[in-house]
Amino acid sequence: MQTSRLELLMCMPCGKMRRSLLRRFKSYQSMLCALSKRAYCGTASMKCVNMSKRRIFSAIQPTGIPHLGNYFGALQNWVQLQNDPDNKLIFSIVDLHSITLPQEPDVLRQSIRDCVAVLLACGIDPERSILFQQSSVHQHAELAWVLGCKTTLARLGQFPQWKSKSGGDKKKECVGLYTYPVLQSADILLYKTTHVPVGEDQYPHLELAQDLARIFNNNFGSFFSIPEAIAGEISKVKSLRNPSVKMSKSEPDRRGRIELTDSYEEIQEKFRKAVTDFTGAVTFDPDNRPGVSNLVAIHAAVQESSLEEICEQNMGVETGEYKLILAEAVNAKLAPIREKIFELRRNPEYIDSILRKGAERASEVADKTFSEVKKRVGFV
User: Fold this and answer.
1) What is the dihedral of CA 251, 161, 111, 137, to 10 degrees?
2) Which residues constitute the signal peptide according to the record (predicted)?
């Protein structure tokens, strides 16, 4: 019996409900009933992926030194994924994305090298993974144009980031900010990616990549894999100055974030100034004590302990003293990474060679993919 489009749509909630369900399910398909799943996987828009071999793509913007939130939210997970022999990983320094906001050329050049140094210091192995600079592989922009021609303005208007990043100033609402989700989709699909590590706020972007892959497959024949989310437990590190928001590289107050290159003295000072409350005990209560709870969550991530264990270990400790205990633990975690970053910074030629070799490897894959895209679209 053939499944109607209406039946399929009934099994796939839309909007916010769809995204909330994606947080609970490991893949888009897992939201479907058995009947719809068979019909969905049987269409030209979907190639069922061999789960034994995963091609994983992820990226980082070169807009300043990565911080503790970046480390526990992404970088640490990347290294763990790299250690699985069944994974083929591709990591990109997405400099094209970074210029959607103003960048000083000299600062951007240094930030690109710093990003590479951080990834290497955290454990990314350029022999086991492909590590490259996005702008060095021209097919990213070319595929973005093809996909952009299959994207509607209404769909891009659903993404709020372009307004938040421009501050609502019409003069700052550049086309790049509006269309960068399409470039993100191109980044993913160019490497026939099967899986993407995502945070909670990134699901809409992955959904766009999935939808554009289906649209292309329906129009030009089955070609792109439909990338699935790797939705593991992601540590959410909050700002030390405003624990209601995530720790961010773009936060104006540098005291709100622990950068991976911060000295022990800087780490101590930032934790001393961290927003807490007037209750002295160390407890985990995010609703009523967000500041202290953020510190406990950071401590648990650093020590790879449970929240309960951290609270028990620090029972009877005043908040002021606890901040110094936490600073020491964070410094112990970051010290070897920090030293490696500084060592790599002193050897820019080595970093440039890593990027050059990575671009060559990435270009081999990208050229093969986009050559086929050009044939299917009718360019050649």
Assistant:
1) 170
2) none
